[in-house]
Fold this sequence. Notes:
Blueprint: H1 19-29, H2 33-54, H3 58-82, H4 93-97
Helix pairs in contact: 1-2, 1-3, 2-3
Amino acid sequence: MSAQPDHIPAPPPAPAPAAAARLLARIRADHRAHRWQPAFERDWAKALEDSRQTYDLTPLHEVVRTWQGRLHTAPAVDAFVAGGMDDEDGIDLEQIIGTRP
């Protein structure tokens, strides 16, 4: 008996070729652009370098998917913050994962 799965899940589809450019335009139009644009550009540069070394586009696709998710959920986060919900019992993310270099 083999411990291998019977099926391999299909990878998510690759983003459109211009997805990163459209994403950057959306980031620039957001009120958080002064923080998000440098973070996106840093993530993109690292993924680009990784892709150059490995000849694999997966790191670039992951950056696009991650930032699409962030922009997609940003209105819900804004609504939560604007709603005055009590988040005093929360834990800072830095306490869990540490600060980013």
